[in-house]
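As promised in the previous annual report, we have extended the structural survey to additional targets. Below is the entry for Actin-related protein 6.
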Amino acid sequence: MIDHTHLNMAASSTTLVLDNGASSLKIGIEKETEPVSVPNCITRTKTERRKSFIGNQLDDIKDLSGLYYLLPFQKGYLVNWDTQRQIWDHVYQSLLKITPSDLNLIVTEPPFNFQSVRDAMIEVLFEEYGFSSLTLTLPSSLSSFHQLMEYPERPCTLVVDSGYSFTHVVPYYRGKALLESTLRIDVGGKLLTNHLKEIISYRQLNVMDETYVMNQVKEDVCFVSQDLYTDMRKARGKQDTNTISLDYVLPDFTSVKTGYILPKGGKQHGTSEEQILRIGNERFSIPEILFNPSDVGIHQMGIPEAIVHCISTTPKPMHRYLYSNILVTGGSTRFPGFRERVLTDVRKLAPDTYPVDVTQHDRPDLVPWLGGQKLAQEGREGAGGHLQSVTQSEYKEGGLAQCHKKFYDNQIILHSNYN
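The corresponding structure token record, generated without further manual editing, is:
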């Protein structure tokens, strides 16, 4: 059961939920059906280097080739505060048209965040934006809360969060993270896109400066193989037996605004100037890096092995429940076949006596925001009171020490304290 007897609501009754990801931020008032997704970057074009496009203003750019990005996150951590402030200002003032001081805020930070980065975020949100109250937590914690609300009879959840910079495997017991067992894999969407750029540039066409375009290619054509060796044979086959390879028409942002897959036997749109990529085994070899990082020289476990190893380090009574409640979230889990491959591989590695079940939301990248929405609707200290808020007045009185106690100490559980 979820205990709501220790609520600590601020004077404001409206909550803003912000999943502040390295690639995009999902933001919205708790009463909204779904959040607004905004690129978490400032963009400049090759023709207008002096003009900046903030967040969703990217949609106003007519020629999306050769974009130059200013990112607030580097290697998964928020370090460029000037850039992040500009993006937040744009979202708050121009996009949502909200006044932060009138709102409570639930915001995410990455696992293993540096204390200095966390403290800077708290100070900026309280002192510069003046939010009425603040809850700072992990994306996986909000995902775990969402799963707990969906399946209240399941005390344990294993959250696999594969995002832009990293993939994290985080076990939860009754809403608390077991950080001693949490694993990080240094593979995310950024690495996959960069590797695809390198392969295409080596084999066909120099696309090293086309991050935006190649990211779209990745999302349009890639899938997770269920049988790697069979798909490799198909990709090597002749045209009549090759069901893997396809032609992709690149956008030129003049006659072709958006890239698309050329139908089998289809013709070009009538010009010989169209650039066409022949995509073969890249369709599945790129997502395969999530399952075998050693393919690109990263000597770490793939996701299925990480899941099994993570569970093996938790208290043994939890193993059965964690195997039976694996939740995959994050933008890099959207490849077709991702959930099925994780289920198949974990089933092979897990003890035969344990049931294995893998859950995936229709929009896995939105699960943390949806969890934050449910948390706001249920009470800021939902999930057994582990996700707590600090009000503006409490911050002024207790400072960062008050925040550390509520945001960190109450969200984790040590193995020695498991009961």
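The first helix runs from residue 81 to 95. The longest strand covers residues 156-162. These points will be discussed at the next consortium meeting with the crystallography subgroup.
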